[in-house]
Amino acid sequence: MNSPAPVLPPLGSYPARTYRLGIMGGTFDPIHYGHLVTAEQAREALDLDLVLFMPAGVPAFKQDRHVSSGEDRYAMTLLATAANPAFVASRFEIDRAGVTYTVDTLRELRARYPENVELYFITGADAIMDIVSWHNAEQIGDLATLIAATRPGYDIETAKAHITAAGLNIDVHYIEIPALAISSTHLRERIAEGKSIRYLTSESVIGYIRKNSLYLPVEE
Ligand code: ATP
Ligand code: MG
Fold it and tell me: Per-residue confidence at 132, pLDDT binned at 50, 70, 90?
């Protein structure tokens, strides 16, 4: 039998050069083309060697909505990223009990990988706005370079202004990506309404959702 995929891919065998590791975090309930395009263009723009897709460990209920299990979200992430050799789905956060904070994940990655591995944390414009309100924003900035991608409905200039106003000493790269007004919320709503989600995420993810009856309205 094959051994299970490592929770973190080993990168230590290239000590002679700088290795750029991207981390794409999210609930991924479900993963969609907005996530994949963002990660791919961040990889290209910053010349990343690898992007880890890390479904977050989240409580079963988040803002009054049911969240799919870590296993389902990880499985969909694995399916969606399978064809890209630079993408790796990671169980790192879902395998820990409870919620994992970004700063803790980055701290642990920093401790596990050698000095020549640089960390890049990829987020959409909405998520970068949240970061300024985290009390440990500076620590995140010390551990990783942030990559903020444009996202329809969220103004990157406002995000920039927030960071400047907060006087945060963090390195943020802003990247413009083609506007994909896709969100997991929109996919879940379409599924619940019996509408098609084709071309919003991969066929493999759509098949998984259907096979496991995810996001269907609960019978009263
Ligand atoms: P939900 O609607 O459930 O909040 P979501 O589509 O926002 O889901 P998340 O898992 O919350 O997806 O997002 C993970 C990361 O991906 C965040 O950094 C978010 O900003 C980014 N992201 C999600 N969708 C897009 C998109 N269409 N364009 C750019 N970035 C995106
Ligand atoms: Mg979101």
Answer: low
pTM of the predicted structure, to 2 decimals: 0.92
User: What domain range is 149 assigned to?
Assistant: 17-211
d(CA 151, CA 10) in angstroms, rounded, equals 32
Is 4 a domain residue? no
CATH of residue 158 = 3.40.50.620
Distance from the alpha carbon of residue 127 to the mean position of ligand 2, in angstroms: 7
CA of 17 to the centre of ligand 2 (A): 35
- Domain presence at residue 55: yes
**Of all protein residues, whose CA lies closest to atom 21 belonging to ligand 1?**
124
H/E element holding 192? helix 184-192
